[in-house]
Design brief:
CATH superfamily of the largest domain in chain A: Phenylalanyl-trna Synthetase, Chain B, domain 3
Mean pLDDT of chain A: 93
Strand content of chain A: 25-35%
Radius of gyration of chain A: 42 Å
Largest sheet of chain A: 7 strands, mixed
CATH topology of the largest domain in chain A: Phenylalanyl-tRNA Synthetase, Chain B, domain 3
Structural class of chain B: alpha+beta
Helix content of chain B: 40-55%
Radius of gyration of chain B: 41 Å
Number of helices of chain A: 22
CATH architecture of the largest domain in chain B: 2-Layer Sandwich
Strand content of chain B: 15-25%
Number of domains of chain A: 6
Shape of chain A: elongated
CATH class of the largest domain in chain A: Alpha Beta
CATH topology of the largest domain in chain B: BirA Bifunctional Protein, domain 2
CATH architecture of the largest domain in chain A: 3-Layer(bba) Sandwich
Mean pLDDT of chain B: 91
Oligomer: heterodimer
Largest sheet of chain B: 7 strands, mixed
Low-confidence stretches of chain B: none
Distance between the termini of chain A: 90 Å
CATH class of the largest domain in chain B: Alpha Beta
Shape of chain B: elongated
Number of helices of chain B: 12
Chain lengths: 783, 338
């Protein structure tokens, strides 16, 4: 939203305060100001001039005028192309030596005639977009126009325009007009806020009233109208045009400009209807049909759309946009002004449903004060009558109120305020600020009691902390002294799952040279199809803007395989991700790992990955084992895959990539893949292992088993060897024989905590181990 | 006499010793088990009593002198040998990097997330994470977002067919934390959030935020400023100033926008748009309704909350100008963010 300093100055005297200071203080106290811009300082030496003679150019093929212009000192010859030149016209005249932006005006030769200066258009002066003709000062300036007077003395061309970030005004409906901002500035700079000049509506109360009714009190809180006849003014006063233009609204004639001017001044949208085109007004709904807005958009009417109706026919989409059928036109003389307040949610929903946004809807959806209707009406009449002597108010202001905005009383204890802020206050200053903002504060020894002004009561002021905000922001957040809190010291216990994740990631990166990537929580269905990976989904996004990205993933490997296919052509790829998945109503954290290489065989990568899992999960405190061939993943090799058990519980899957998927991604890139469900890792107990180091000598016994079965079967058997002297075993050597059998050498350590073993004991244990193997199907040889 | 002859012979031989090996042989010959001096000393006992003392003394003097000379020579030869070896040793060029060893990396977001959370952890904040799939209650209602608030029907929320949403902010975890930790707590909770919008250089559908809360009997605005200043200074290893401006969030009252003095310059740069300040985070005092819904009595307890874009912080910190790199899976691009 743009703000004119000239306009603000009408209500609060900001003379002597630099615009930079205004930007800073307003940003720090009220709302974010994005910056400011000085307007009208691009012109020099432009004066009031008068066209003395005006004849068509004798030779030019283009339509040109030969003029003589009185510039206050002399009468000079000028050539001008504006179609609206006429004798006696008062113009903005750029003398020889004048500056307009980049142009230095000098004596020019146009179509063989000398021209000593130029008559300016609105666009050249930077005060409008109009370049169809030159400015007709008599039509838009009310005072005397003495030739030679500097133009900036006649029309307020110089101004400072601030721009406020609209987002920072979302919760402040009262700041959507200049007067509200002036009120803030009056408190910030400790200046008096001037009263808004308004007409006295009481004067008209005995006149007949314009009929208005509220049919839908749910959506229309208040609705008022009055009628003015015999308005003859067509062109707005120049100051009004300039202010609107500087605030990004172009001029559309006096009546429309006036309506906009009130909106920008008070933040109260309003509508001017051509009185000849409307009858009995009401605010309510229409079942069906079409409605054409003043911008010629055609709307299919729905029963929940709120309209202003005339004799039951919609004439305005309430609070959003007027209709084409009741538009002010150049011949309009009699006007009905409407001031209303609507349910902000209704306005917002309708506006977003129909895709129609306007300055009016933006304000209404913030939630406006019903009391602003009267003020707006009184202000319109004031400006209207001042600028059109023939206009005549012919009705009272008929104001129907279904639910009035009321300000409540809020009590705030000083002790709470100071505890909450960590700061003490000077309560005389607090009182002054609250008063300036319109609260009527009563401050006692222990308490502050305020009455909320109605313009703050629609939305943002309801509870004591809201008053704290008012006090602290006007006190200045900068003035609060930072303080360390006083708290009871209590030990902080880190979450085990986060510690586990950190450790895991550190190992994967620093020990195994893996790279961490991020992917989305949903499957990229299209990409997965390309690489021939199928994965189910148990949850869908209902409103995704991107087709094919609706399915929330239930595992992480498919996402990582997509990443592999995006990083084509690499000799080797080593990636992992920790990310969320969803299945059966539960969200899980997964870690997925892919090892890919063009040089290493799949089997090599698969083994490397298994050893990696043994190591990292082992570091986390788990004993890892495998259920070979049990992973059940279609994108894995049908034989070379496994469920990974941690302390006997399935918590991960590992496998070689299925050749079909590999072919689709990159036939030359061998891959082994694994994913861990972190929530499936068993919780670690708090108990610590006993110290089993014996001070007596231990004995090692080596056994060799030759078998065609996989090692994990053997492991399970040896894990099942329970014996008081068994202090554990390890795989010492592996030898693959020609006949596909493998010889495993396993070394047991036996010993006792309280004695040196005798030869008999050692021999007996040896036999027991051999016997245990034999019973479980493994022939054990001592080597 | 035999001894003086021996002495001459020994002197001559010592002069001829060239290596440590020579020394060893010489030692063997005269001082070893069957060495000349050893044998003479052994036979001293056979001499007449009057000669015995004299001969023994002469032999012992000789033995000591020989041992002394030999010691000096051995030391000298040892040193010479080491020096010769040092001269022959090749220079090892350790400046050649290890070509074979691959190195991995943590995602840039993980790296900065750790720095931030650890800075808070040193001040007694518990680090939490949370679900990304949350209920409408967690994401909106429990945070005082009114039923008609625009945020709810905002198109940029991902709605799910179980009625839930992909969380639009980490703030969605607040309600759970109040219920878990009760009225006196300090928690920092980073995590991933989602917005249903079109992707461009500064918007992605998934991004990271960090939220934090502190609740207690007299936690104040002054405390909030203190913490943010301390932690940002720790994260950026530089004295960071902070300032509060008015802001608006449904879950805090009052709400602030917090600006941090620019971490990248002293007097204005492109990052801070020459202003010296960077809009860093939204924060405020937790709204009484939010505390109440978390089971905390707002008349007795109060606290502050803050939240900022971790993804944006990473972009600022490493000068990344395209957010899309983070979720791209492009290993080269991710590895280049340092």
């Amino acid at each position: 939203m743009k703000l004119s300093l000239n306009w603000l100055n009408e209500y609060v005297d900001l003379a002597g305060i630099l615009p930079e200071k205004i930007v800073e203080r307003l940003s720090m106290t009220t709302a974010e100001v994005e910056g400011f811009e000085v307007r009208g300082n691009h012109i020099k030496n432009i004066v009031v001039g008068e066209i003395v003679t005006c004849v068509p150019h004798p030779t030019s093929k283009k339509p040109l005028w030969k003029l003589t212009v009185n510039n206050g000192k002399n009468v000079v010859p000028v050539v001008c192309g504006a179609p609206n030149c006429r004798v006696g016209m008062k113009v903005a005249f750029a003398k020889v030596g004048a500056v307009i932006g980049d142009i230095n005006v000098g004596v020019a030769n146009l179509a063989g005639e000398e021209s000593h200066g130029m008559c300016c258009s609105g666009r050249e002066l930077g005060i409008s977009e109009d370049h169809d003709g030159i400015i007709d000062l008599i039509a838009c300036v009310s005072g005397e126009l003495v030739n030679g007077t500097p133009i900036e003395k006649v029309i307020p061309v110089v101004d400072v325009i601030f721009e406020i970030d609209n987002k920072s005004l979302t919760n402040r409906p009262d700041l959507w007009g200049h007067y509200g901002i002036a009120r803030e500035l009056s408190v910030i700079f400790n200046k008096k806020l001037k009263k808004l000049p308004v007409a006295d509506l009481e004067k008209y109360k005995d006149l007949p009233s314009v009929p208005v009714t509220i049919e839908n009190a749910q959506d229309c809180y208040s609705f008022g109208a009055f009628k003015v006849e015999n308005i003859n003014r067509r062109v707005s006063p120049i100051w009004m045009q300039i202010r609107l233009f500087y605030c990004d609204i172009s001029s559309h004639g006096f009546l429309v400009d006036l309506s906009n001017y009130i909106m920008l001044e008070l933040g109260q949208p309003n509508h001017a209807f051509d009185a000849s085109k409307i009858g009995k007004l009401s605010a309510g709904n229409v079942n069906s049909g079409e409605f054409t807005t003043l911008k010629d958009q055609v709307i299919q009417i729905k029963p929940h759309h709120l309209f202003i109706k005339s004799d039951g026919k919609p004439v305005s989409l309430a609070g959003i946009m007027g209709g084409a059928n009741s538009l002010i036109c150049p011949t309009t003389r009699d006007v009905v002004f409407e001031f209303a307040t609507f349910n902000p949610t209704t306005i917002r929903k309708t506006s977003s449903e129909l895709g129609i946004r306007s300055d009016s809807s933006t304000r209404y959806e913030k939630g406006l004060d019903t009391n602003l209707n009267r003020e707006g009406a009184a202000r319109v009449i004031k400006i209207l009558l001042e600028n059109d002597k023939s206009a005549c108010v012919v009705s009272s202001f008929n104001h129907q109120v279904a639910s009035a905005t009321k300000g409540g009383t809020i009590r705030l204890s000083k002790a709470y305020l100071e505890r909450f802020c960590g700061q003490s206050f000077n309560y005389a200053d607090v009182k002054r600020s609250l008063k300036g903002l319109g609260f009527e504060p009563v401050i006692t020894k222990n308490e502050i009691v305020v009455t909320t002004p109605t313009w703050r009561a629609t939305k943002d002021i309801n509870i004591p902390v809201d008053i704290i905000e008012e006090i602290v922001r006007t006190f200045g957040y900068d003035n609060i002294v930072p303080r360390a809190p006083r708290v009871e010291l209590a030990p902080v216990e880190p979450l085990a799952r986060l510690e586990r994740m950190n450790l895991l990631k550190n190992l994967l990166v620093s020990k195994y040279a893996l790279n961490e990537v991020h992917t989305y929580i949903w499957n990229d269905t299209k990409a997965l199809k390309t690489i021939k990976v199928e994965t189910p989904s148990y949850l869908k996004i209902t409103n995704s803007v991107t087709p094919g990205m609706e399915n929330i993933r239930c595992e992480i490997l498919p996402s990582l395989l997509n990443v592999v296919s995006k990083n084509k052509g690499k000799e080797s790829i080593r990636i992992f991700e920790s990310g969320k998945t969803y299945k059966n109503g539960v969200e899980f954290t997964y870690v997925g790992i892919v090892l890919g290489s063009r040089k290493k065989e799949s089997s090599e990568l698969y083994t490397e990955l298994a050893h990696l899992l043994n190591d990292v999960l082992g570091t986390l405190g788990y004993r890892v084992s495998y259920e070979i061939g049990k992973a059940g993943k279609a994108y894995m090799h049908p034989k070379n895959n496994a469920d990974v058990l941690t302390n006997g519980k399935m918590s991960a899957k590992i496998g070689i990539i299925h050749p079909t998927v590999q072919d689709a991604i990159d036939p030359k890139l061998n891959m082994a893949i694994a994913q861990i469900n972190m929530e499936f890792l068993p919780e670690m107990g708090a108990e610590t292992k006993q110290n089993v180091t014996s001070k007596y000598p231990k004995t090692t016994l080596d056994f060799t088993i030759t078998t065609d079965k996989i090692y994990s079967n053997l492991e399970r058997v040896f894990d099942g060897f329970k014996h008081e002297l068994n202090m554990g075993y390890r795989l010492k050597d592996v030898y693959v024989r020609d006949n596909d059998e493998v010889s495993y050498t396993v070394q047991f350590t036996i010993g006792s905590l309280d004695r040196t073993l005798t030869g008999e004991e050692i021999n007996a244990t040896w036999f027991q181990i051999v016997e245990h193997g034999r019973k479980n199907g493994f022939v054990v040889d001592n080597t | 006499m035999e001894i003086s002859k021996l002495k001459k012979e020994i002197d001559a031989e010592i002069a001829g010793l060239k290596t440590e090996l020579d020394c060893n042989e010489f030692h063997q010959k005269y001082l070893g088990k069957g060495g000349a001096i050893t044998l003479l000393l052994r036979d001293v006992g056979k001499l007449e009593a009057d000669e015995r003392a004299r001969v023994a003394q002469e032999l012992n003097v000789l033995k000591r002198d020989v041992e002394g000379s030999l010691f000096v020579l051995q030391k000298e030869f040892k040193e010479r040998e080491i020096n010769e070896k040092l001269l022959q040793d090749k220079l090892v060029d350790i400046s050649i990097p290890d070509i074979g060893r691959e190195v991995g990396f943590l995602h840039p977001i993980t790296r900065v997330m750790r720095e931030v959370t650890e800075a808070f952890a040193t001040m007694g904040f518990i680090i939490e994470d949370g679900n990304e799939i949350v209920t409408e209650y967690e994401n909106f209602t429990s945070l005082n977002v009114a039923p008609n608030h625009p945020a709810r029907d905002m198109q940029d929320t991902f709605w799910l067919d179980n009625g839930g949403v992909l969380r639009t902010h980490t703030t969605a975890l607040q309600n759970y934390l109040y219920k878990k930790y009760g009225p006196e707590c300090r928690v920092i909770f980073p995590g991933r959030c989602y917005r249903n919008e079109n992707i461009d250089a500064s918007h992605d559908m998934a991004f990271f935020q960090v939220d934090g809360i502190m609740v207690g009997k007299d936690v104040s605005i002054a405390n909030l400023i203190y913490f943010m200043k301390r932690v940002l200074s720790a994260v950026f290893k530089k004295d960071i100033k902070v300032r509060l401006r008015p802001g608006f969030f449904p879950f805090t009252e009052p709400s602030f926008e917090l600006d941090a003095s620019c971490m990248f310059c002293e007097s204005g740069c492109n990052v801070c748009k020459k202003s010296g300040w960077i809009e860093f985070c939204g924060c405020g005092m937790i709204h009484p309704n939010v505390l109440e819904m978390g089971g905390i009595n707002p008349n007795e307890y109060q606290g502050f909350a803050f939240g900022f874009g971790l993804t944006r912080l990473v972009m600022l910190k490493f000068g990344v100008d395209d957010v899309r790199v983070f979720n791209s899976g492009n290993i080269e691009a991710l590895g280049a963010v340092k």
